[in-house]
Structure formats: structure tokens, C-alpha cells
Amino acid sequence: MTQRAVIFDLDGTLVDTAPDLWRATNHVLSHCGRREVSLDEVRAFVGHGARKLIQRGLAATGEAYDAPAIEPLYEKFVAFYSDNIAVGSVPFPGCLALLDKLRAEGISIGVCTNKQEGLSVKLIDTLGMRHYFGAIIGADTIGVAKPDPAPYRETLKRMDRTDSPSLLIGDSETDVLTARAAGVPIVGVTFGYTPRPIAEFCPDILVSRFDEAFEPIMGLLDG
Fold first, then answer.
1. Cβ atoms 209, 94 nearer than 8 A
2. Which has the closest alpha carbon to 123: 3, 9, 209?
3. Per-residue model confidence as pLDDT tens digits over 167-191
4. What is the mean pLDDT of residues 104-114?
5. How many CB atoms lie within 10 A of CB 48?
């Protein structure tokens, strides 16, 4: 049997993390004397790591901060978020059933995210999902983040699937660019976090629900 691999983005793809990212963002903004941002605003801010999330929150509520000034806020964000990482975060509907189907087919499954690796592992562990994944690669794992293809390739490498048919599933332009740079198909989910619809970036396949994703995924892997 051909060894195959499916790599997922995390925030806005596997797990609806926006409620807890929203609380952590507003925790930092409150510390800075800023207004709270809405949940919808935070959904549009997600995708390039916590520092960028904080920067976008600050820019939306007043004067932006330069990079050095972000660092103490980043530490405050991470501390709060780590302590409250799965208060409101849940897998998207149909996610676990899809993972079960993929695993039953012998497909290796990994996570490649622009979230910090330690936070990604903690979230996945807290949600009881760790057993699904052969590798979890974050923005800080190898010192480079998506859309550079290196984290995707590192995910495959750690699962011993470097030369196997594989694809990426994600919700954003960053994921589409990552897949294109890695030379693999991209399945775009329409329910994630992005300021522009992922359809605008022309993924190979679009799915609006995980319960309709299995057959298209298999078609791309076996095509």
C-alpha cells in the first residue's frame, strides 16, 4: 500500500480557537488601556502567529507598537493563553470523524501551524487529539514559518513521509501559498479565519464541511 500523508493547519482549520484567542487578545489590549476587539475582528487577525495578532489588535484600537514593544505584550499574551487554552476552543464539526477515516485508511496525519509549537501541542493534548498526529510543527520549531514550505516539509520528514503523496488542508492564503511552494495540493476550508475568502486564492478543492471532505482528499492523494 502506498504511504500517504495529510497535513492540517490548526487554528481555523482543525480547531475553532477564536474564542480563546479573542480573550487573550483582549487581556493584552486591556493592559494597554485599549478597547476590546470583537470576536469577528480576531478571526480576521489570526494566521501569522501571536505577535502579528497582537500588532493587528493594537492597530485596530489605536496607535500601533513597534516590534520591540510587542515582546512584553507577547509574553503576557502567551501566559494568559496557555492558562486558558481550551476554555472555548473545540474541534470543528466533523473533524474527529474525518481524522478517524483518514487513520483507518493508513494515512499519516500531521499538523503544520504558525502557532508556537508548545502551545499547539498543549492545545491538542488538552482536547485529547494527540493520538491522531505523527508530527506537530509550529512557527518556532525550525525557525521559519509558513508560507515558507520548510515547515511543511519538516512535518513530512518527522513522519517519514518525505517522498509520499501528501496534501495540505488549511483556511487561509498562507496555506495556499505554502502548498504551492511545496508543490502539493491544497484543500481549502471555507469556515476558517481569513479577512478574504480562501476561494480567492484558488485552492485545488474547497470544502465547507468536514463531512464532505473525505472523498475529495482521497481523490487528490490517489490522483
1. yes
2. 9
3. 999 999 999 999 999 999 999 999 9
4. 98
5. 17
Encode pLDDT of 135-160 as tens digits.
999 999 999 999 999 999 999 999 99
φ, ψ of residue 187 to 5 degrees: the values are -100, 120
Q: State the pLDDT at residue 67.
A: 86
- Which residues are designated catalytic? 9
Q: Could you report how far apart the first and last alpha carbons of the chain are, in Å?
A: 15
Of the candidates 92, 80, 89, 87, the residue with the CA atom closest to the CA atom of residue 54: 80
- Separation of alpha carbons 99 and 137, rounded Å: 18
**20-24 contacts: CB < 8 A, separation 24 or more?**
20/81, 20/84, 20/85, 20/86, 20/87, 20/88, 20/89, 21/46, 21/53, 21/81, 23/80, 23/84, 23/87, 23/88, 24/77, 24/80, 24/81, 24/84
Q: In this structure, what C-alpha cell is assigned to residue 181? A: 511552494
Q: Does the reported pTM lie above 0.85?
A: yes
The amino acid sitting at 130 is R
Domains of the chain: 5-16+89-222 (3.40.50.1000), 18-83 (1.10.150)
Min mean pLDDT across 33-37, 61-65, 146-150, 185-189 is at 61-65
